[in-house]
Write a structure and sequence with these properties.
Helix 8 runs antiparallel to helix 10, helix 11 packs antiparallel against helix 12 and helix 16 packs across helix 18. The C terminus is likely disordered. It is built from 21 helices and 10 strands. It is elongated. A hairpin with an 8-residue loop joins strand 1 and strand 2. It has 3 domains: 312 residues, ABC transporter type 1, transmembrane domain (ABC transporter transmembrane region fold), CATH 1.20.1560.10; 125 residues, Rossmann fold (3-Layer(aba) Sandwich), CATH 3.40.50; 73 residues, 3-Layer(aba) Sandwich (Rossmann fold), CATH 3.40.50.300. It has 585 residues and is an alpha/beta fold. A 6-stranded mixed sheet has the order 6-7-8-3-9-10, sandwiched between helices.
Length: 585
């Protein structure tokens, strides 16, 4: 049960503050009930019997009652909101930490906008529900109990007559709560879709404008917003339905009380003061009763949000440390794939019995057509995914038998999709080593051929690069990424198409930086342009998830197989381009 889980995992830790807040709520309830009870002596003694002594005392009593109520209200409001906000902050921390531990496959299968929606829409609904529920679930019932006690004290028969309508109010409140939860769940799903759409179009705004698709995207966003609008309006109608029900039932109860109570006063069975004290208590009880009706709607919205948040928290990562996993100690950095097979899902395997080896301190290249499985091979080394069969070993140790922290600490990755954060150049270079000194950062930048351009930036190493490094060119971003790998100084280097998207000049600079980075390291390279891997110690040609050829550049050309055909095609294309360039000149 969601409520029980929230209490067990989050609320129980704040028991001390909750008990103090509960004491404040009890004072508020007692003060409210005392206000209604004071109506009897005011009317019967002061106005009916002209009791001057009591008249001198009652104003001070009223002031004391309201002062106590105000102070207690402040105390419970602050305490409950602090507890509510702490619960939500803790859940956000848990959620973020859990996502950081999630598998890469989880992020591939879940839209970014949906995850962002968990932190914004869902958590905000949960925040409102927790704050409202924690306060209302104790304060309002205590207030109603205090006022009901006054009503029964003044006239139990009249109280029994008045309260026959309240059970009638429970059925519509329960029905409205159920509908509210369903509508809220649908609204939150739709908000996730809207957030995903916004994230996609903002990230791809360059392509949106290049293809003149502004009107199309505006129409798509408008449709998503309209769906959210309709669901929110439906939720508002469902929530508002409780008000007229409570109004009608409250009016019915008051009408019955006036009629029956009036008869008892006329017949002398009760006093005017007792009757008005009863009516005051009934009217004061109406507001907390109405809040209890709204509380259920708020609670159901929050529970729908909690269900989605817990669904993420309950998703266990498949890639984790095995029991008894030991730290990886890299002596040379020898990498071996032993009959490795891998499936992303149902269908043909991405890898089928791949065996290859990258001896310590050497450079191996993976080449082949797109979709052949090259990136999959690389992704299995840091355990972004686990093999379906076979094994991946580093210095003889299966990567599944060592800790993830030590495994990934021994690797440095540079890919064509450079990930820079909206922070300074300095922080981006030091991302893998936050405690690195300024001299170490600058030395890594110099080796990566990045120091020169960094010095020309407006604030040098303190220049903020923008989201995704948008303020830098592709070549500059790549050199910052290489500097990051330089600073990490890992014994194993993984290069995934690191120069494929660069112009000739940028590629020359980046290639020089990569050659510096590769010295003394075990390196696995994925390359599209074969000219960049000619000097590799061993080249593996991958096709349809299998290694079909292996050897040095010269050996593979001599075999005149798949590698040689690809090389001749690329060489012919390059020669054709050069011929066309000369002709134009």
């Amino acid at each position: 049960m969601l409520v029980e889980r929230l209490v067990r995992e989050e609320v129980r830790a704040h028991l001390g503050r909750l008990l103090l807040a509960l004491a404040c709520m009890a004072i508020v309830a007692a003060a409210t009930a005392g206000t209604a009870w004071l109506m009897q002596p005011v009317l019967d003694e002061v106005f009916a019997n002209a009791n001057r002594d009591l008249l001198a005392i009652i104003p001070f009593v009223v002031m004391a009652v309201f002062a106590a109520k105000g102070a207690a209200n402040y105390g419970q409001a602050v305490l409950m909101n602090v507890v509510g906000q702490r619960i939500i902050a803790n859940m956000q921390k848990r959620l973020y930490a859990h996502l950081m531990a999630a598998d890469l496959a989880f992020f591939n299968d879940t839209a970014t906008g949906t995850l962002i929606s968990r932190f914004t829409v869902d958590v905000n609904l949960l925040r409102a529900a927790v704050s409202t529920a924690l306060t209302g679930i104790a304060k309002e019932p205590l207030t109603v109990i205090g006022l009901v006690a006054v009503m029964f004290y003044q006239d139990w028969r009249l109280a029994a007559v008045a309260f026959f309508v309240f059970p009638l109010a429970m059925l519509p409140v329960v029905i409205i709560g159920r509908r509210m939860r369903k509508v809220s769940a649908r609204t939150q799903v739709q908000m996730g879709r809207l957030t995903t759409h916004l994230d996609e179009t903002f990230q791809g705004v360059r392509h949106v404008k290049a293809y003149g698709m502004e009107s199309y995207e505006i129409e798509r966003a408008g449709s998503e917003i309209e769906r959210v609008y309709r669901l929110v309006c439906k939720a508002l109608r469902v929530r508002a339905a409780s008000a007229p029900i409570m109004e009608m039932l409250g009016g019915l109860a008051i009408a019955i009380v006036i009629f029956y109570g009036g008869l008892r006063v006329i017949e002398g069975a009760t006093t005017t003061g007792a009757f008005f004290s009863f009516v005051t208590a009934l009217l004061l009880a109406y507001e907390p009763m109405k809040k209890l009706g709204n509380l259920n709607a708020n609670l159901q919205e929050g529970l729908a949000a909690a269900q989605r948040v817990f669904a993420v928290l309950d998703t266990e990562p498949q890639i984790r440390d095995a029991p008894g996993a030991r730290a990886l100690v890299v002596e040379g950095g020898d990498i071996a794939f032993e009959s490795v097979s891998f499936n992303y899902g149902p269908g043909a395997p991405a890898l089928d019995g791949v065996s290859l080896r990258v001896p310590a301190g050497t450079t191996a290249a993976l080449v082949g057509p797109s979709g052949a499985g090259k990136s999959t091979i690389l992704n299995l080394i840091p355990r972004f995914y686990d093999v379906s069969a076979g094994g991946v070993r580093i210095d003889g140790a299966d990567v599944r038998d060592v800790t993830l922290a030590s495994l990934r600490g021994a690797l440095a990755l540079v890919s064509q999709e450079v990930s820079l954060f909206n922070d300074t150049v300095r922080s981006n270079i030091a991302y893998g080593r936050p405690g690195a000194s300024d001299d170490e950062i600058r030395a890594a930048a110099r080796t990566a051929a990045a120091h020169g351009f960094i010095e020309t930036l407006p604030d040098g190493y303190d220049t903020v690069v923008g989201e995704g490094g948008v303020k830098l060119s592709a070549g500059q971003r790549q050199r910052v990424a290489i500097a990051r790998a330089m600073l990490k100084d890992a014994p194993i280097l993984l290069l995934d198409e690191a120069t494929s998207s660069l112009d000739s000049e940028s590629e020359r600079l980046v290639q020089q930086a990569i050659e510096s980075l590769m010295r003394g390291r075990t390196t696995l390279v994925i390359a599209h342009r074969l000219s960049t891997v000619i000097g590799a110690d061993i080249i593996y040609f991958v096709e349809r998830g299998r290694v079909v050829e292996q050897g040095s550049h010269a050996e593979l050309l001599a075999k005149n197989g798949a590698y040689a055909r690809m090389y001749r095609v690329q060489f012919a294309d390059e020669a054709e381009v050069a011929t066309m360039a000369r002709a134009r000149a």
